[in-house]
């Protein structure tokens, strides 16, 4: 038991996590020195309000990436789930709707999200089609259905408590942030402690070998895309309560940022490797960069460019580190070769 | 016929789908099978096809490029300023400048991918954000309207008045599209470097060991994509008669869907120009047909999505395998 713990601690604090943590601290120190407004309660809470929507969508992207795929339909699935909740609220009372209607709407939203993921999973599992193509068609489909049913309009007019959920806080922590943390922990447990999670990593490493070792790969694929869809629905519900409105196209620009965050968090683009904690840290770093630059007077577009440069810098550093350690290993092994 | 089905299954499938769709559409709409509509269709797909054949080469080489649509917007702005610096320019200079700038942006991707051993999807998602972020930041989202006259004047290459009085016109982008198609087809089918791109995409390590210059292959593949992005950007500005910084963003996924639908493998080594063009054409025909049938534009995307999902499922599923798969599943 002790040895396992020891290994776990080493596992968590070496490599990626340590690197990202050091970088996070460096960025925070730099911004606090550059501006007195950075390390204030207002800024911290505004960061905690902005982070969850992107964070939840990134979690939805992470599991398919670990399995060696992608889910490009996440943003529109989140929108469709939000629409399902919005219509339930509107149909059953509008501004006067009760909490039970909200719960029913959330259940419907989760069903919509899960269904979208389920269809992707079934098509990916039973045809040889690449997940990028399948989820791309699902994205076009979700956007299409959403635009058709909502006519591209904003849907508003929800009961007051919905907004209070989205903008309220418990013990000073915004509720969306709490939702995000709970979801991240759940994702961590699913990936590291369940058969489904283990199978997902194995799928990403070598799908044939996994199938031949007796893992139900098709079922695993279907479940993992369904989970991804469920997380989209959570993101959709959070976005609805934060903006107090739903529009198809909300958060559209998050799509490729979620992939960027996963890669920053050292998820392998081919699947098989990657964990929730580094991805969480990567998200916090992205948010700190964006909020810090905002305080210094730059706009979101400059942050977007910097996010891209940051990803490039990280992968180049990883490459340099890999070369360095390979050389080191070679030098250490050389005497044995002689 | 049976032989073609075996050697080019996806192309034949797409052709069958296009013919079926055309028969249905011409039965429901008199306008569908007219020269005017056919030319409209060709004009409207030209920019996407130019992008698509560029992306095809990258996909064959085993990579992927997400950044090309944004790169095309960057080229539009850079070309605008370069051309006004050169005193206005003309079509020849325009093509050289736009193509050259595109090649440079493609070379950035290729350099990062090759020299730092980074996976193409990581690099191009990063450069996608860098290009778009910097473009929006530096231009402050302002569009350009005062393009030189030669750039915006419509050029009609072929026209004919129909009996109904409407004109069937083939415009410049369509001709450039045919040029891009033939050049790409020649490159990947008849040149040594083209065959090397296939070999590299199929097995990079094997290609390196038989002495293929892998640096050249990567730079040519991404350079070709960049050139097509630049030329596509030039054509899009010509078509719209204005340059808008976020006009092309989002196009990358539509084009990617069409190219992969056309049989290009995301792992590399597989893909044909014919399949790629048919993929774009099928998506365009569906949209065009829905338009002619009077379906509300709000429903277009939903119907395209359903058809795409069905097409993917049908063209990828082998029923024999499905049966075997189910049997395996039930014994578990």
Nutshell version of this structure?
With 338 residues, chain A is an all-alpha fold. Helix content of chain A is 78%, strand content 1%. The two termini of chain A are 40 Å apart.
Structural features:
heterodimer; A: 338 residues; mainly alpha; two-stranded antiparallel ribbon; 14 helices; 2 strands; disordered N terminus; B: 332 residues; ABC transporter involved in vitamin B12 uptake, BtuC; 15 helices; 73% helix; globular; disordered C terminus
Question: SSE layout and pairings?
Answer:
The complex is a heterodimer of chains A (338) and B (332).
Chain A: H1 2-13, H2 16-34, H3 41-66, H4 74-91, H5 99-126, H6 131-150, H7 160-167, E1 169-170, E2 173-174, H8 175-193, H9 195-205, H10 207-212, H11 217-243, H12 254-264, H13 276-295, H14 300-337
Antiparallel strand pairs in A: 1-2
Helix pairs in contact in A: 2-13, 3-8, 3-9, 3-11, 3-12, 3-13, 4-5, 4-6, 4-11, 5-6, 5-11, 7-11, 8-9, 9-11, 12-13, 12-14, 13-14
Chain B: H1 2-7, H2 9-28, H3 35-60, H4 68-85, H5 91-115, H6 120-139, H7 149-152, E1 156-161, E2 167-171, H8 172-190, H9 192-202, H10 204-209, H11 214-240, H12 251-261, H13 273-292, H14 300-316, H15 319-331
Antiparallel strand pairs in B: 1-2
Describe the structure.
The complex is a heterodimer of chains A (338) and B (332). Helix content of chain A is 78%, strand content 1%. With 338 residues, chain A is mostly helical. In chain A, strands 1-2 form a two-stranded antiparallel ribbon. The radius of gyration of chain A is 21 Å and the shape is globular. Chain A starts with a helix and ends with a helix. Residues 1-13 of chain A have low confidence and may be disordered. Chain B contains 15 helices and 2 strands. Chain B has helices at residues 2-7, 9-28, 35-60, 68-85, 91-115, 120-139, 149-152, 172-190, 192-202, 204-209, 214-240, 251-261, 273-292, 300-316, 319-331; strands spanning 156-161, 167-171. A two-stranded antiparallel sheet of chain B has the order 1-2. At the A-B interface, helix 5, helix 6, helix 12 and helix 14 of A face helix 6, helix 12, helix 14 and helix 15 of B.
């Amino acid at each position: 038991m002790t040895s396992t713990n020891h290994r776990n601690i080493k596992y968590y604090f070496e490599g990626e996590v340590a690197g990202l943590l050091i970088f996070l601290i460096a960025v925070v120190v730099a911004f606090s020195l550059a501006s007195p407004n950075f390390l204030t309660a207002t800024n911290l809470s505004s960061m905690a309000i902005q982070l969850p929507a992107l964070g939840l969508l990134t979690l939805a992207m992470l599991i398919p990436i670990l399995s060696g795929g992608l889910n490009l339909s996440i943003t529109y699935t989140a929108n469709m789930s939000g629409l399902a909740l919005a219509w339930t609220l509107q149909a059953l009372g509008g501004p006067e709707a009760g909490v039970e209607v909200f719960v029913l709407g959330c259940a419907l939203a989760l069903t919509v999200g899960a269904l979208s993921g389920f269809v992707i999973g079934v098509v990916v599992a039973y045809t040889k089609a690449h997940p990028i193509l399948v989820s791309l068609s699902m994205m076009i489909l979700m956007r299409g259905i959403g635009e058709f049913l909502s006519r591209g309009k904003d849907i508003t007019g929800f009961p007051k408590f919905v907004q209070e959920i989205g903008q309220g806080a418990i013990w000073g922590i915004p509720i969306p942030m709490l939702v995000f943390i709970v979801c991240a922990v759940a994702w961590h447990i699913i990936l590291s402690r369940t058969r489904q999670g283990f199978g997902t990593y194995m799928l990403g490493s070598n799908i044939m070998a996994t199938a031949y070792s007796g893992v139900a790969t098709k079922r695993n694929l279907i479940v993992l895309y369904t989970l991804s869809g469920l997380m989209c629905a959570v993101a959709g519900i959070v976005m609805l309560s934060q903006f107090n409105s739903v529009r198809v196209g909300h958060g559209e620009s998050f799509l490729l940022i979620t992939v960027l965050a996963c890669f920053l968090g050292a998820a392998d683009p081919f699947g098989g490797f990657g964990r929730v904690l580094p991805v969480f840290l990567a998200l916090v770093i992205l948010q700190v960069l964006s909020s810090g630059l905002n305080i210094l007077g730059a706009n979101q577009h400059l942050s977007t460019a910097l996010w891209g440069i940051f990803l490039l810098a990280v992968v180049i550093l990883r490459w340099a580190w890999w070369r360095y350690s390979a050389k080191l290993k070679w030098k250490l092994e050389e005497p044995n070769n002689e | 016929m049976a032989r073609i089905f075996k050697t080019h299954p996806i192309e034949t499938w797409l052709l069958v789908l296009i013919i079926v769709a055309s028969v249905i559409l011409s039965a429901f709409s008199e306008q569908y099978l007219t020269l005017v509509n056919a030319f409209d269709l060709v004009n409207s797909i030209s920019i996407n096809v130019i992008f698509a054949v560029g992306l095809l080469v990258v996909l064959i080489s085993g990579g992927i490029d997400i950044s090309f649509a944004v790169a095309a917007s960057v080229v539009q702005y850079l070309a605008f300023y370069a051309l006004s610096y050169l005193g206005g320019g003309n079509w020849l200079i325009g093509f050289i400048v736009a193509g050259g700038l595109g090649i440079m942006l493609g070379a950035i991707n290729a350099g990062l991918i090759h020299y730092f051993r980074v996976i193409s999807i990581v690099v191009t998602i990063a450069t996608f954000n860098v290009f778009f972020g910097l473009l929006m930041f530096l231009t402050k989202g302002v569009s350009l309207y005062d393009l030189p006259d030669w750039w915006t004047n419509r050029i009609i290459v072929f026209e004919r008045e129909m009996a109904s009085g409407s004109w069937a016109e083939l415009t410049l982008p369509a001709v450039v599209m045919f040029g891009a198609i033939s050049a790409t087809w020649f490159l990947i089918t008849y040149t040594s470097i083209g065959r090397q791109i296939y070999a590299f995409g199929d097995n990079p390590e094997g290609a390196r060991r038989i002495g293929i210059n892998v640096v050249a292959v990567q730079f040519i593949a991404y350079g070709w994509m960049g050139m097509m992005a630049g030329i596509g950007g030039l054509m899009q500005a010509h078509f719209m008669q204005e340059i808008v910084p976020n006009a092309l963003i989002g196009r990358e996924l539509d084009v990617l869907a069409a190219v992969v639908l056309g049989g290009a493998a995301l792992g590399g080594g597989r893909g044909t120009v014919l399949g790629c063009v048919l993929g774009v054409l099928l998506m365009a025909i569906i949209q065009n047909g829905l338009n002619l049938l009077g379906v509300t534009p709000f429903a277009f995307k939903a119907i395209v999505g359903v058809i795409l999902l069905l097409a993917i499922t049908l063209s990828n599923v082998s029923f024999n395998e499905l049966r075997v798969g189910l049997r395996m599943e039930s014994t578990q």
